[in-house]
Design goal:
With about 120 residues, this protein is an alpha+beta fold. The protein contains three helices and four strands.
């Protein structure tokens, strides 16, 4: 199976349970793992036969910036749903890391959706 991976995409979002936390944009790091519909052996060196990871990165950033949210879980699911709907992917995995909890490197959520398992 082939995968397209974007690791450590830096995005900004107004996110947090409290209104005070949502007031200012926060730095988040996102990892995306996509399983394309077309195997790498069949893409014939043509971007239209695969997933444009630059377009994926732009879309992830635009979703995060589109509106405030309380939960990382909500943002992760919205990103996964959009990637599955808008790109030639069989499955999508999104992990979002947030840097807010004192004494930790980060907190994170991961959402994985496989079209075949729905």
């Amino acid at each position: 199976m082939d995968f397209i991976i974007i690791k450590g995409l830096e995005i900004s979002a107004h996110i947090g349970v409290s209104e005070d936390e949502r007031r200012n944009s926060q730095r988040l790091l996102v990892d995306v793992v996509l399983t394309p519909l077309t195997a790498f052996s069949a893409v014939a060196d043509d971007i239209s036969n695969t997933v444009d990871y630059h377009a994926v990165a732009r879309r992830v950033s635009s979703i995060a910036a589109s509106r405030p949210r309380r939960l990382l879980e909500t943002l992760a699911r919205e990103i996964v749903d959009a990637l599955l709907a808008e790109f030639r992917t069989r499955s999508a995995e999104v992990e979002i890391r947030k840097f807010v909890l004192p004494g930790t490197e980060y907190v994170a959520v991961r959402c994985v959706v496989d079209r075949g398992a729905q």
